[in-house]
Fold each of these.
Amino acid sequence: MTSLLETDLHFVLTRLPKDIRNLMKKHGLILGGGFIREVIAGNKANDIDLFGATLVQLLSATLELQQDRSARKFETANAITLISAPRMPVQFIKRWLFPDANAVVASFDFTVCQAAIWFADGHWHSSIADRFYPDLAARCLVYTSPAREEEAGGSMMRVRKFLARGYTIQASSLAAVIARLIGKVRNSDMAQTEEGAAKVLTGLLREVDRLLVIDGVDAVEEHQ
């Protein structure tokens, strides 16, 4: 693991809403994944993902932000999402809990997502995978085969989204994503025929926390 460039760390923090920065400081939350990647790449982020060590910690932060923003709350098995359009949606990831930022970084399925920021000892800190910068610059998807419980089709659907944004993926990484899918298909009694296997795959190929409730809502820039 290494760290973001200081200029990039500062830039991400300046694009992060002030109330989210304060929430991270107060509750010891970790910012991870897509928001960091998109800001550094010069793109528009879709949402803010926050991680924590305990469910109590996450629920306390969720309640505080919900009250402050008068936000609507939507909950899935993976996350609690607060919507206060046109502000950017905030997701508190509850399915996976992490003791520290390095564990958050290691949990992401692609190297271009492996980045985290947190506040401790009076300073902002960051952690990224060694391949974060080179793969982001090359717009190359490298699958990490994370050791975590997840929907087997989640990474495949994310591949589809990244390819639509101009990323590429090498055969070895795509094969690793497919291998995870195959493992789930083999465990299904329905997969005895090609038609049955197709039905199992269709069920697996679903995105995680798609935020359908905010389709058509254009989040505003709200950095301060």
Note: The radius of gyration is 18 Å.
Amino acid sequence: MDIVLAIVLGALFGFVLQRIGAADPDKIIGMLRLSDLQLMKTILTAIGLASSLLFVGLALGWVVSSHLSVKNLYTGVLMGGALLGVGWALAGFCPGTAVVAAGAGRKDALFFIAGGLCGAGLFMVNYQSLVQTVLFETLLGGAVTLADTGKYQSLLNGVEGLWPALLVSVVFIVVARALPGAFRG
């Protein structure tokens, strides 16, 4: 049953990405060039709303915190994120939007996906030699959260996780509302 739910939710997410223009490289590049902020407004609003719902759900016990995990921060994560950002800006796709664009019939997305799979394969083949390098050196103690969760080291000791999360969520939504352009209905 879990796989059926995953397929349904994945298809729904792909539909939404296609509908808001997140699978259109011109929209993505316009967002990254700060010339078309509609997609940025949508993304920031979605992050703010989803974060609010997640942390309220955690506070009310509707979401089980043991299902969530904080990944270690290490040098390779920052370098990989920068590399992903450069690729995203050059191609106009990220891995998720490329799959959606390929499903919508964009052939350039297939090349992006193939390149990503080749890169992942090269990483896997070279993993044993890379694990001994600075790429896997932990930063800030590894798994760190902004506020106390009771499970991980936090940057704001003694501050319950709900309040900073809601503050960050509100900031994301306020920034999204302040950006020029109107939301599409």
Note: The beta strands are 144-148, 153-160.
